[in-house]
């Protein structure tokens, strides 16, 4: 029997604003919209403006670079498009890159996502891309592609288009998301959300360099970017840290 896809089959765009909802592994990836609604406490931030390790043989001397996002957050889109991807195109061989997500775990093994179940599924699909294709050039590119049309996540047509663009097999994503009746994908999301919470990260998008907050994109503005928010500023910092790890003198 052909495996049923757990991604929505509708081509209709998902509404831009969806109330925060619980996404539980007990519902698998049926992606049921009958899940109860739970409003956020307001402690996470995705500022709307209203008017696996790096795939490298040795990461010991690589510079840790991590971004914490929500898949349906415009600040995450801007952060990836304007800072992270341009920087990574220059220094990806020097970076141990990690993509993490912001949300809230629940006592029944579920996860609360700020923009609803559609965001939870988007987060999981992006985590699955990273799990199945650990090269950041692939899974970060896929994540960027989705973020450019974040309002439509998780439309099947969007997922397929972005998967095709970056050489990702759509069935691999679906298998990952639905494995063990959805428990595997939910586990990826819970682990990622837990990591962000333990690090005290609550704002999408937060860029952490060498285990410290380097820059934040919030409400359409850059914040806490003392050393600059341009890609060349981030590249310069990464090169300095990499040279130090190698025992070189950075000029």
TrEMBL record:
GO CC list: extracellular region
Keyword Glycoprotein recorded: yes
The organism's place on the tree of life at top rank: Eukaryota
MF GO annotations: oxidoreductase activity, acting on a sulfur group of donors, disulfide as acceptor
Keyword annotations from UniProtKB, A to Z: Glycoprotein, Secreted, Signal
Residue stretches spanning the membrane: none
Protein localization: Secreted
Protein's UniProt keywords contain Metal-binding: no
Family stated for the protein in its record: Belongs to the GILT family.
Protein name, as recorded: GILT-domain-containing protein
Native organism: Paraphaeosphaeria sporulosa
């Amino acid at each position: 029997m052909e495996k049923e896809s757990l991604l929505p089959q509708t081509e209709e765009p998902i509404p831009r604003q969806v109330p925060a909802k619980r996404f539980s592994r007990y519902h698998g990836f049926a992606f049921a919209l009958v899940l109860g609604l739970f409003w956020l406490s307001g402690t996470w931030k995705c500022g709307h403006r209203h008017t696996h390790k790096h795939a490298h043989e040795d990461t010991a001397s690589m510079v840790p670079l991590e971004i914490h996002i929500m898949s349906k957050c415009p600040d995450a889109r801007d952060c990836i498009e304007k800072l992270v991807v341009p920087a990574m195109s220059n220094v990806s061989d020097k970076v141990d890159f990690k993509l993490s997500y912001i949300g809230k775990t629940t006592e029944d093994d579920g996860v609360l996502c700020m923009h609803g179940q559609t965001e939870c599924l988007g987060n999981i699909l992006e985590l699955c891309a990273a799990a199945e294709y650990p090269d950041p050039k692939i899974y970060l590119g896929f994540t960027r592609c989705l973020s450019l049309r974040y309002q439509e996540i998780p439309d099947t047509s969007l997922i397929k288009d972005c998967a095709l663009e970056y050489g990702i097999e759509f069935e691999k994503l679906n298998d990952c998301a639905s494995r063990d009746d959805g428990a595997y994908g939910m586990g990826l999301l819970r682990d990622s959300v837990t990591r962000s919470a333990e690090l005290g990260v609550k704002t999408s998008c937060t860029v952490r360099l060498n285990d410290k907050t380097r820059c934040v994109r919030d409400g359409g503005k850059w914040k806490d970017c003392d050393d600059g928010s341009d890609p060349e500023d981030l590249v310069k910092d990464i090169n300095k840290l990499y040279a130090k790890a190698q025992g070189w003198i950075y000029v």
